[in-house]
Design brief:
160 residues, 26% helix
Amino acid sequence: MGVTTFNDEYTYSISPKRLFKASILDSHNLIPKLMPQAIKSIDIIQGDGGTGSIKQINLAQGGKFSYLKYKIDELNEETYVYNYVLIEGDALTDKLEKITYEVKFEALPNGGTVSKVTSKYYTVGDFAVNEEEIKAGKEKASGMYKAVEAYLVQNPEAYV
């Protein structure tokens, strides 16, 4: 088994508190409304949505994948840390054992947020991850956060 790690940073004009509430805590309600062309629903399969819970993202038809299921390892509303493991779904081919994500939102001096994301791809055997496919997936995830950011800019009273 090999592990390939990626570290990325993204900036947003919204405070960490609002971005965390909207994109993480209420993702199952907000994201399908903002992106119905990509995400059909997000269901809490087990738990209350907090640490230890399992969520399933059901993707819209016509895409490369149909669903993703992940377990929340850490959800800290005070430090804005969100760690989870992709445990099932089309993205986990027979070449990937699991994918872990560590997300931390930090405040910027201008009132915005820097999102620091570490993703680790645990491969089976000597399989090497395709960095172009990973990049495409990251762009889709970034698009989701940008949609949330745009919503929060247009709705300054939401998720305060």
